[in-house]
Specification:
InterPro entries: AB_hydrolase_fold, Dienelactn_hydro, Dienelactone_hydrolase-like. The protein has six helices and eight strands. It is an alpha/beta fold. Helix 4 links the parallel strand 5 and strand 6.
């Protein structure tokens, strides 16, 4: 994956200031919307690459800078930056961060380029943020049309939100996740698949952040298997067509 730049940048008025957002546009300059939530390392080149991948598939993609209240740091990916990344995420006000994410999702839905529904995609820290955002929007009768969470690191601590989420859900987890114990992953699977439109995918040999290209985390086979499942899911729920692998 290569580092890419957004097509445009904007801000969303939120409590205490303006949330910076990066916007990636499809060639047709219009389509369904996707809010893509960052990993614990910030809005890195990898996150921007995934945003561009989705834009190339026809989505209008918005990436909120969820660390903006801390100066929008971008932290070195890999084990050498992990301690700093965890400390940075630990300084966030979670409720405000979720409120920012809700505002960003609503903002994307109002952009003139967006035609059709909006979905949420999150990686690691962003997976938990997408999960919480979906619950809060559902409370207001605004359930996103799709939710995709890659190894949502905070979801095991947010299982009380499960009954509030109304969006179709797709979850990806590695069976060798070194940060989330197996019982935590099992609890997430039980919560999200209990009578809901949900798909839960596990990948043998893959650890946490397996889609991240950093050698410390990347699992090529799991990443290659998970991405077409993601794009098919989004095509079905956002574009109204069966996706193709």
């Amino acid at each position: 994956m290569t580092t890419t730049t957004p097509d445009t940048q904007s801000t969303v008025p939120v409590e205490g200031g303006d949330l910076p957002v990066q916007v990636f546009l499809p060639a047709a300059e219009g389509g369904p919307g996707v809010v893509l939530f960052q990993e614990i390392f910030g809005v890195t080149g990898y996150i921007r690459s995934r945003a561009r991948d989705l834009a190339d598939l026809g989505y209008v993609v918005l990436v909120p800078e969820s660390y903006w209240r801390l100066g929008s740091p971008v932290i070195s990916e890999g084990m050498d930056g992990l301690e700093e990344a965890m400390a940075t995420s630990g300084r966030l006000d979670w409720d405000r961060t979720v409120a920012d994410a809700v505002a960003a999702t609503r903002y994307l839905g109002r952009r003139p380029e967006v035609s059709g529904p909006t979905g949420l995609v999150g990686f690691c820290f962003g997976g938990g943020l997408a999960w919480a955002t979906a619950a809060h929007l559902a409370d207001e009768g605004e359930a996103p049309a799709a939710l995709v969470a890659y190894y949502g690191s905070q979801i095991p601590t947010l299982l009380d939100l499960a009954g509030r989420i109304r969006s179709p859900q797709l979850h990806h987890w590695g069976n060798a996740d070194q940060f989330i114990p197996p019982e935590g992953v099992d609890a997430v699977e039980e919560a999200v698949t209990a009578g809901r439109n949900a798909t839960f995918c596990r990948y043998d040999g893959a650890g946490h952040a397996f889609d991240n290209p950093s050698p410390a985390f990347h699992h090529a086979q799991a990443s290659a298997r998970a991405w077409p499942v993601t794009t098919d899911w989004l095509a079905t729920h956002l574009a109204g067509r069966a996706g193709t692998s």
